[in-house]
């Protein structure tokens, strides 16, 4: 299985150095490896909008004898499951082993993210949040529930807050943005075209854009300010795990910054929100019999 997993990682890691035609093949495979195992060489060529000889050249460039072998390796990878869960996990890991590995990987990734975040950039991000007239949190895929979590946190600060995971709604909101609006765009890779387009559109209309994304990514480059999130896992291959936890933790940091910046005078408002939930819960010592 190690060879299979390495093949997928090599395809992703070499994207930038592939020529234009071969990169189209790589992107078609990474977009849906399972579908690639069902494609004929003609179907993959059509999906990638290249010729069949280009697909064969792509195979040889990765030391694969031909497309049939490539399909076999992809099928083996999918069958094992582990290659799409986490880099740390092996197909034959016991429950004890993979539990320990996932927790250990998450803790290490959080520590790495903490060390890499710039406190001055955190402070500037809190400034944008405090000054905003209204805040829109955008995310797609695995980042969508992170945006919703942000909405749950930040509405408590008596701000107009929304969260959206629909590209069309994101575009419409960006098209009617104004100065004073803040768009917080959450994207682990920062390479999702739709989110980059939305960020550009929002800024063209005078809004500020705060990115929670990878340093130097296309999204980071078009944001007003970007909080650079480390890349501990390759989400083009593996299931998003630690990336989501890091995003949630960074949002907790920002929420804490806003709370502290608001000062003690804002505490009664937060207490009122908490007290509103008391009637909805059974008390710990309440007899349910």
Automatic annotation (TrEMBL):
GO terms for biological process: carbohydrate derivative metabolic process. Keywords: Coiled coil, DNA-binding, Repressor, Transcription, Transcription regulation. Residues 5-81 form the HTH rpiR-type domain. CDD domains: SIS_RpiR. One of its GO terms (molecular function) is DNA binding. Residues 125-264 form the SIS domain. Pfam families: HTH_6, SIS. It comes from the Bacteria. Residues 1-31 form a coiled coil. Involved in regulation of glucose metabolism. Transcriptional repressor of the gap-1 gene and of the edd-glk-gltR-2 and zwf-pgl-eda operons. Acts by binding directly to an inverted pseudopalindromic sequence in the promoter region. PANTHER family: GLUCOKINASE, HTH-TYPE TRANSCRIPTIONAL REGULATOR HEXR-RELATED. This is HTH-type transcriptional regulator HexR.
């Amino acid at each position: 299985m190690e060879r299979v997993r390495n093949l997928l990682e090599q395809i992703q890691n070499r994207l930038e150095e592939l020529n234009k035609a071969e990169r189209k093949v790589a992107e078609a495979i990474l977009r849906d490896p399972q579908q690639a195992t069902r494609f004929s060489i003609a179907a993959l060529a059509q999906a990638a909008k290249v010729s069949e000889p280009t697909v064969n050249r792509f195979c040889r460039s990765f030391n694969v004898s031909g497309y049939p072998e490539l399909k076999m390796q992809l099928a083996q990878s999918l069958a094992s499951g582990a290659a799409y869960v986490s880099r740390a996990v092996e197909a034959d890991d016991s429950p004890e082993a993979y539990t320990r590995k996932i927790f250990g990987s998450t803790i290490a990734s959080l520590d790495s993210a903490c060390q890499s975040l710039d406190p001055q950039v955190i402070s500037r991000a809190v400034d944008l949040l405090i000054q905003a007239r209204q805040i829109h949190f955008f995310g797609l895929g695995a980042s969508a529930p992170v945006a919703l979590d942000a909405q749950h946190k930040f509405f408590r600060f008596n701000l107009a807050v929304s969260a959206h995971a629909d590209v069309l709604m994101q575009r419409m909101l960006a098209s009617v943005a104004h100065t004073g609006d803040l768009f917080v765009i959450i994207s682990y890779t920062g390479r999702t075209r739709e989110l980059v387009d939305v960020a550009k559109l929002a800024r063209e209309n005078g809004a500020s854009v705060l990115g929670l994304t990878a340093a130097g990514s296309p999204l980071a480059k078009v944001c007003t300010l970007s909080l650079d999130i480390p890349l501990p896992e390759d989400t083009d291959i593996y299931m998003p795990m630690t990336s989501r936890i890091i995003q949630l933790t960074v949002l907790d940091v920002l929420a804490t910054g806003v709370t502290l910046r608001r000062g003690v005078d804002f505490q009664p408002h937060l207490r009122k929100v908490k007290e509103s939930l008391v009637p909805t819960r059974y008390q710990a010592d309440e007899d349910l019999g």
